[in-house]
Every structure is written in structure tokens, then in C-alpha cells.
Write a structure and sequence with these properties.
The chain is an alpha/beta fold. Helices cover about 35% and strands about 15% of the residues.
Length: about 400
């Protein structure tokens, strides 16, 4: 009995000493452009804290667990003004943070990654969907939480083919990023057995996108623009620039569904997602921010949670140790999508299901039934290992 008491007292003393010690501190930076871009619909205007609000919620989640593990997480935001150097800003954040969640355009992200290559700072790409960042321009210190354009296009393509809507009319905007999404959609069509029977380009002629006569003008313009098309099952729009796609539903010459940048859209997250416990996350986010959770919010949340999960598993604040665990076979993270998410070791892209949404409901979730893969069905979305051009260093 005395021995047992002595042992218990000893264990209590060790535990008390452990929790009395300074907590493991994990400092995370958040780098993004200043300001927000307005959208075509007044309903979908992004909030000033779009993205960073998701990261902050994950910091709170990490600290809830961290109380029991003697770990503490902080978030520091830095906004890039127009013309400011992304590499310099990233270096400034890296002085105080071992990890940086970045919502930057592709070129700025590459500059930031190159500037931090020798510092051991790990960047989590939460915003850029460019495939080249995971392929010919991949960097060994960048984890990609945002899905790629090819992942989004493949998710949509699988569903359209599953529905037997295999004849597509493709309408592409005139901006470069519109063309990149169009290329991803063409790849998906070839990959899954669909056929693009007609291609058209919607030229952005500038000027105000919202005018008092807009409804009348668009009601006349869109039907004429889409008439005399070969027989098709679905109109697929590539309009990342938010110029025309939102005008397409219910205005096409032929009565056809619209998908892509409007109508049925592929997203990593949506406010309507309520499966697999997502309602609890959505409610907490709304309570804190008085708005719904966007895809960017969820991508930033996932990035911060990945850091939290790896920290709890390694009991380390060392960025190199945490990064090594994230890249290893034992890592996975739960993100309210029905299965645990893992990293592709050939390009550090996070595997994830893609939601197909119509603005009010989740219509479906890809990968679709019947699209098989020898390793993971999630690898049917986007560039697979045999196709990759990435050479991590």
C-alpha cells in the first residue's frame, strides 16, 4: 500500500511538473493580399476576413486540445498591399512564425516559397488552385490545401458522365485564368469519356457589370450568344473572372443545365455542407463570425488543423519535425468530408473529396461511384503520380 502511494505521488509530481513547464508554442503566420475582390452577385460578396476567419477557428480548436497537451497556438496576419514584395513579406512573417498559411496568386506564392527555402519555414497554400504550383513549379516547402483546377474539373466531369450528360457545350471567358479552367475541363472530358461538341468564348469588353438596364440587356444577349449550338446535354462555363457565368442559368437558348463556374459548381466547401458532422463546425463558425463559412475559410481551417494534428502527434514545436510527420505515412486529418485526408507524397497536394453544389444544397460529392483507383479513389481527381511533372527538392 505504501509503495502504491509513493508511486502515485511520484506520477502526480511528474505530471504537475510537466504541466507547470512552459507550453510548446506554435506560431503560424497568415499572408494574403489586402482588400477583397467584388463578385458579380451581391449575395456572394466576400468578407474582409475571408480565409483568416477559418484559420482563427482552427487555432481555437488547436488550443482546446492544446490545454491538455501543454501546447499553445497563435496566428499572425499580414496583408500585402498592391505592389509590395511577397518574398519580403514572407521573410518578415518567417522571423516570428515557423509556418505560414498563404492566400496568394501563383507567382507571388512561388516568390515567397523561394525566399523561405533555406529557412525551414513551411508554407500552406490555402488559395491558389493553379496546377503548375503542384507540377512544373512545385516547391518542396509548400503544402497545397486548396484543390487544383484539375481536381475541381475532374470532380464535375465525373458527375456529369455518371449522369450520362456526356455532350458538353463549353463557354470560356477571355481572361487567362478562365482559359486555365477551360483546359482543365477539356482534360476531364477526355479523361472520363465526355465530348465537347461546341466551344465559344465570351469576351470581356469592360465597363460596369451591373447597370440599371442589366436584366433587360442580359435577357436579350445570353440567348442569342448560346443559340445555334449542336445538340448538347449541359453547358459548362469556365469563368473564374466572374464576368458572365452567373447570367447563364435560365437564359440559354436551349433549355439545358449549366455547370462549372455557375449552376452546379465544384467546391472544396460550401455553406450548405451538413454531412459527417459538418453542421457543428458550420454553427460554431457562424456564431463567431456572423456569416457562413466559405471554401477559402475551410481551406485555411484545414491548414491550421493539419499543423495542430501534427504537433499533437509529434509533441514537438520544431517545424522540420512537424513537416516530416505531415509528409509521412502516418499523417491524416479529419475535415468533415466523410473520410480522413492525406498528402500526395509526389507533389504535397492534399487529397480531398470535392462537393458539387447549386447554391443551396450539396448535390453530390466526388469521387463518384465506379471511378476506381489502385491506391485511393481520391487520386482519380487531379494529376496522378504517373502523370506528375513535379520534382520536389
Amino acid at each position: 500500500m505504501i509503495r502504491w502511494l509513493v508511486g502515485a505521488i511520484g506520477l502526480t509530481a511528474v505530471a504537475s511538473h510537466a504541466f507547470a513547464a512552459d507550453p510548446i508554442e506554435i506560431h503560424i503566420g497568415y499572408l494574403r493580399l489586402a482588400g477583397v475582390k467584388s463578385t458579380l452577385s451581391l449575395v456572394d460578396q466576400p468578407a474582409d476576413n475571408d480565409g483568416v476567419a477559418g484559420a482563427q477557428l482552427a487555432i481555437d480548436d488547436n488550443n482546446t486540445t492544446g490545454k491538455f497537451l501543454n501546447q499553445h497556438f497563435t496566428l499572425e496576419e499580414l496583408r500585402l498591399k498592391e505592389g509590395e514584395d511577397a518574398a519580403k513579406a514572407a521573410a518578415t512573417l518567417a522571423e516570428r512564425n515557423g509556418f505560414i498559411i498563404a492566400d496568394l496568386p501563383a507567382d507571388a506564392l512561388v516568390k515567397a516559397a523561394d525566399a523561405l527555402r533555406d529557412r525551414g519555414t513551411v508554407i500552406f497554400n490555402a488559395g491558389a488552385t493553379d496546377d503548375r504550383l503542384r507540377e512544373e513549379d512545385c516547391r518542396g516547402n509548400v503544402i497545397h490545401v486548396a484543390p487544383t483546377r484539375s481536381m475541381l474539373a475532374d470532380a464535375l466531369g465525373q458527375y456529369l458522365v455518371w449522369k450520362q450528360w456526356k455532350r458538353w457545350m463549353l463557354v470560356t471567358g477571355s481572361h487567362d485564368k478562365d482559359k486555365l479552367f477551360a483546359a482543365a475541363l477539356k482534360r476531364a472530358a477526355t479523361r472520363f469519356g465526355a465530348k465537347i461538341v461546341d466551344e465559344r468564348t465570351f469576351e470581356d469588353t469592360g465597363g460596369a457589370r451591373r447597370t440599371d438596364s442589366g436584366v433587360t440587356l442580359i435577357q436579350r444577349q445570353i440567348p442569342v450568344f448560346t443559340q445555334q449550338a449542336p445538340s448538347y446535354d449541359v453547358l459548362v462555363a469556365a469563368d473564374e473572372s466572374e464576368v458572365f457565368a452567373s447570367y447563364l442559368p435560365y437564359r440559354t437558348w436551349d433549355p439545358r443545365p449549366v455547370a462549372g463556374s455557375a449552376g452546379l459548381e465544384p467546391k472544396s466547401w460550401d455553406a450548405s455542407q451538413d454531412q459527417w458532422g459538418a453542421t457543428q463546425l458550420q454553427n460554431r463558425f457562424v456564431k463567431l463570425n456572423a456569416r457562413h463559412m466559405t471554401a477559402l475559410d475551410m481551406q485555411a481551417w484545414t491548414a491550421a488543423r493539419m499543423i495542430g494534428e501534427a504537433t499533437s502527434r509529434t509533441s514537438s514545436s520544431d517545424a522540420k519535425t512537424i513537416f516530416g510527420f505531415l509528409k509521412g505515412p502516418d499523417f491524416s486529418v479529419a475535415a468533415f468530408k466523410g473520410q480522413r485526408l492525406t498528402l500526395r507524397d509526389w507533389n504535397l497536394q492534399l487529397r480531398q473529396p470535392i462537393l458539387l453544389v447549386d447554391g443551396r444544397m450539396v448535390v453530390s460529392v466526388s469521387p463518384q461511384e465506379g471511378f476506381l483507383h489502385q491506391v485511393s479513389e481520391l487520386d482519380t481527381l487531379g494529376v496522378d503520380r504517373p502523370e506528375t511533372k513535379c520534382k520536389l527538392n
